[in-house]
């Protein structure tokens, strides 16, 4: 029995059937559960999903988050106070952490040391005493400190044994623990990048945005200023501006002075990038619609144009922050940046400016290791954020 509908006669009008059921935009019948989950996801959730797939960027973000959290509690993390001197252990090499002693599990410990002086080279030689087991203590009482310069405390995450030593990264010429000073130095070196990039972004987005949106004489003047600043070599300009700061300034004023210098020199590249993007985007139809509706220039730039190239801004920020960290490190290494008693990674590297010091005490170069790791982490994080900022690609 044939149940098919008969074909219409030649020349007869075709019959159309229209469903009168209401249209359900999120109908589960039209898509699978996985498709529905993606369809209903917000923009931030889509960005997070794409960023999470970039494993290297995710690991770098976790690493940087841990570092920036650590600078909040560096007094607790450091085994020693920033200024504690161990005069019996000057230029002591790093100690190795052991778990077993004579075949028995003891837990994390280091061996005590005995110092001998080489009369030919006047070099201090340290030998581990195999019978002196010094167990490492955790969540313990140690050197006293003032938490953020306000609250007295003496609790530490890790401490040496009672009447013992714990120099995991060695000591410097004054017997100060290098690891503790690296932990304290992270507070300055990491925050100077964030403060500097905030100042640089403010100048770059405002000046570059106005130049790209309005053009004319203002754009011409801004481009000439940018060309002049970019034609000057960076290091001599850093040195000149840093030398202008009076030596009588307090460490806090010097810190903000270096931050302003780094911000003033870094805004030019961002301003030029913002200008070029706005020159292309200002001709779009939605910009004309916003103008016809009476939106101000600031609102159009802030709400309509800048979000169009947010991925580029994120990438520029993650590249500029390590550049500022390197700038502070270079200035402090040359003796023109931050000064004692402020401690940063650049100041710690000044201990290794002599070739003879590097030859005899190479552990004084360890502060360069966190600088390298932070710069790599920011670059990897920037790649992931740049891709995640446009999840539909």
Provide the β-strand percentage band: 5-15%
Which whole number gives the mean pLDDT?
82
**General shape:** flat
Task: Report the end-to-end length measured between terminal Cα atoms.
Answer: 53 Å
Give the structural class.
alpha+beta
Number of helices: 14
Using only CA atoms, what is the Rg? 30 Å
Low-confidence stretches: none
Kindly report the spatial arrangement of strands forming the biggest sheet.
1-2-3
Helices, strands, pairings?
Layout: H1 33-39, H2 43-53, H3 55-70, H4 74-77, E1 98-101, E2 104-118, E3 123-135, E4 137-147, E5 151-159, H5 178-214, H6 216-231, H7 234-244, H8 251-281, H9 285-292, H10 297-305, H11 310-333, H12 345-349, H13 355-360, H14 368-388
Antiparallel strand pairs: 1-2, 2-3, 4-5
Notes on the protein architecture:
Belongs to the binding-protein-dependent transport system permease family. It is a multi-pass membrane protein. Keywords: Membrane, Transmembrane, Transmembrane helix, Transport. InterPro entries: MetI-like (IPR000515), MetI-like_sf (IPR035906), OppC_N (IPR025966). This is Peptide/nickel transport system permease protein. The protein has 14 helices and 5 strands. Helix 5 (about 180-215) runs parallel beside helix 8 (about 250-280), helix 5 crosses helix 11 and helix 9 (about 285-290) runs antiparallel to helix 10 (about 295-305). It is flat. The model has no long low-confidence stretch (mean pLDDT about 80). The strands form 2 sheets. It has a 3-stranded antiparallel sheet with strand order 1-2-3, with no helix packed on it. Strands 4-5 form a two-stranded antiparallel ribbon. Strand 2 (about 105-120) and strand 3 (about 125-135) form a beta hairpin. With about 400 residues, the chain is an alpha+beta fold.
């Amino acid at each position: 029995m044939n149940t098919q509908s008969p074909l219409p006669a030649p020349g007869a009008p075709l019959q159309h059937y229209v469903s009168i059921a209401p249209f359900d935009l999120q109908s589960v019948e039209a898509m699978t559960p996985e498709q529905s989950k993606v369809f209903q996801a917000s923009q931030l959730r889509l960005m997070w999903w794409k960023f999470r797939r970039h494993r290297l960027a995710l690991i770098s973000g976790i690493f940087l988050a841990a570092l920036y959290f650590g600078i909040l509690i560096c007094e607790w993390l450091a085994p020693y106070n920033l200024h504690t001197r161990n005069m019996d252990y000057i230029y002591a090499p790093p100690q190795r952490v052991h778990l077993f002693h004579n075949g028995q599990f003891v837990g994390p410990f280091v061996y005590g040391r005995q110092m001998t002086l080489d009369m030919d080279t006047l070099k201090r030689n340290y030998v581990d005493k195999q019978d002196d087991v010094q167990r490492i203590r955790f969540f313990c009482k140690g050197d006293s400190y003032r938490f953020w310069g306000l609250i007295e405390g003496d609790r530490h995450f890790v401490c040496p044994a009672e009447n013992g030593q714990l120099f995991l990264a060695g000591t410097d010429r004054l017997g100060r623990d290098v690891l503790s000073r690296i932990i304290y130095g992270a507070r300055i070196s990491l925050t100077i990048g964030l403060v500097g990039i905030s100042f640089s972004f403010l100048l770059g987005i405002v000046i570059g945005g106005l130049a790209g949106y309005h053009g004319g004489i203002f754009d011409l003047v801004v481009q000439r200023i940018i060309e002049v600043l970019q034609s000057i070599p960076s290091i001599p300009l850093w040195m000149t501006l840093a030398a202008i700061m009076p030596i009588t300034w307090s460490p806090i004023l010097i810190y903000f002075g270096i931050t302003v210098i780094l911000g003033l020199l870094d805004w030019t590249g961002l301003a030029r990038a913002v200008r070029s993007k706005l020159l292309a985007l200002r001709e779009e139809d939605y910009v004309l619609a916003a103008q016809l509706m009476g939106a101000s220039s600031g609102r159009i730039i802030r709400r309509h144009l800048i979000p169009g190239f947010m991925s580029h801004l994120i990438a520029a920020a993650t590249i500029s922050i390590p550049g500022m960290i390197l700038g502070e490190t270079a200035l402090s290494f040359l003796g023109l940046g931050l000064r004692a008693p402020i401690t940063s990674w650049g100041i710690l590297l000044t201990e290794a400016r002599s070739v003879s010091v590097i030859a005899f005490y190479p552990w004084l170069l360890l502060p360069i290791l966190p600088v390298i790791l932070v710069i790599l982490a920011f670059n990897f994080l920037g790649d992931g954020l740049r891709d995640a900022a446009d999840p539909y690609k």
